[in-house]
Protein: Septum formation initiator family protein
Amino acid sequence: MSSAQAAGTRTKQNNKGSYRRRRLVMIILACFLCWAGATLWNQIGKIEERSEKVAALEQKKEQALQMNEAAKREIIRLNDPEYVEQKIRKELHYVKQGETLFYVPKEQN
Structure:
């Protein structure tokens, strides 16, 4: 065998080895990309689920803030003696001495 043939044989063997290494690297890269894609897909689902929960909690927060504001207004109004008197008369059906209470039942539909 001449040195040119030996060099050609070595080059073919190196090319085979290089091809195998490249193929192995590509397979590993493909596996990594599949794993990364599956993980990303899973994370997107979780993010959407959490976004829905956040939106629901934001809505509950708004309702709680509205209830809080209504309670604050009621507290301020309860400091007014006229309002307290009206509330007692309406809710507890109290009357002053000498007054007559007329009760009208609500119509049922």
Q: What stands out?
A: The chain has two helices and no strands. The mean pLDDT is 87. The CA atoms of residues 54 and 60 lie 10 Å apart. Residues 8-92 form one domain.
